[in-house]
Write a structure and sequence with these properties.
globular, 2 domains, Glycosyl_Trfase_fam3, Pyrimidine Nucleoside Phosphorylase, Chain A, domain 2, aromatic amino acid biosynthesis, 13% strand, Nuc_phospho_transferase, magnesium, 5-stranded mixed sheet, alpha/beta
Length: 330
């Protein structure tokens, strides 16, 4: 077994890649891994460590082919707000706008309904969706990349994470390791003060353009409730800015207005959204869809982005896409 370094010491990017390679390959003791992850989280992971760990995970993933310009919209999870599935809905809306989306996700860890749980409740067969991911992405412009199918190295880590029951660097690695190799992303994280650190990690890994966002209340997506910290990452650098819902001509609403429930509850709400139901859930989706359309290069204006997304909902295109996706995932 490999001896893990003292986690109170900051690791250089190359060392972090090597150490997390040991962890993912089962070359370290489970108890030692648990202590290492907790100690690292307690002193906060650095951008070098996040980038190095993500490289280790990328090196072990099962990739898929994707069309040029494919994007992803996801969050790190663990924000404790138990909201409806915003990024899942955003993926459908953005894909219905003609931008291919490789949605990377998993089942719920700390919430009641993760992306996979809700999509399954809507009728999408997870195993079939996995088998046909490249096909649906090429033909419909959307796919779901179930994390367990593409990151087999995470299999031995999952019991350790579940036993710990706390957020670790593994929450941060997933969005940086999309199996479609997307170069444009909207990533939500649950710690506003951590946005520049995470953005620096994303910049180290390189991107055409990505937004790293966090609501002031610790929401792992753009929030209607108040302000948002946002890092605009292009290439190997980033700029910080503040973003408000009013910039997309959308009203403010408390987080409680988009509180979710179990998979059946969230699936019902998503179906209603796609059928044209107005309200805070729709507004939250339009806000985050606008951000995704901006990083995709479809617009550079928040209000226009929200309008493009609204048309995909109001025309029925997003609902039709969901139905076609379910039918094609066999």
């Amino acid at each position: 077994m490999k001896q893990l370094p003292d986690a109170t010491r900051h690791l250089a990017e190359a060392e972090a890649e090597e150490v997390f390679g040991w962890i993912l390959d089962g070359e370290a003791d489970d108890d030692a891994i648990a202590r290492f992850l907790v100690d690292m989280s307690a002193r906060s992971e650095t951008s070098e460590e996040i980038a190095g760990a993500a490289r280790a995970l990328r090196n072990r993933m099962i990739p898929i082919a994707a069309p040029e310009g494919t994007v992803d919209c996801c969050g790190t999870g663990g924000d404790g707000h138990h909201t409806l599935n915003v990024s899942t809905a955003v993926s459908l809306v953005v894909a219905a706008c003609g931008v291919p989306v490789a949605k990377h996700g998993n089942r719920a860890a700390s919430s009641k309904a993760g992306a996979a749980d809700t999509l399954e409740a809507l009728g999408l067969d997870m195993e079939a969706a996995g088998r046909s991911a490249e096909k649906t992405l090429a033909e419909l412009g959307i796919c779901f990349l179930f994390a367990k199918n593409h990151h087999p190295a995470m299999g031995r880590i999952q019991p350790i994470r579940q036993k710990l029951g706390v957020r670790t660097i593994f929450n941060l690695m997933g969005p940086l390791s999309n199996p479609a190799g997307v170069r444009r992303q909207l990533i939500g994280i649950a710690r506003p003060a951590y946005v520049p650190i995470y953005a620096a990690a994303k910049a180290r890994l390189g991107t055409e353009r990505s937004f790293i966002a966090s609501g002031d209340e610790g929401l792992d997506e753009l929030s209607l409730a108040g302000g948002n910290e946002l890092a605009d990452v292009t290439g190997n650098s980033f700029e910080m800015r503040r973003v408000l819902a009013v910039q997309a001509n959308l009203p403010h609403a408390p987080v409680e207005a988009i509180r979710g429930g179990d998979p059946a509850h969230n699936a019902c709400a998503l179906e209603a959204l796609l059928a044209g139901t107005p309200g805070p859930y729709r507004d939250a989706v339009l806000f985050n869809a606008s951000a995704t359309l901006i990083v995709a290069g479809r617009t550079d204006d928040w209000t226009e982005g929200a309008q493009i997304a609204a048309e995909a909902l109001d025309s029925g295109a997003a609902l039709t896409l969901l139905r076609d996706w379910i039918a094609l995932s066999v």
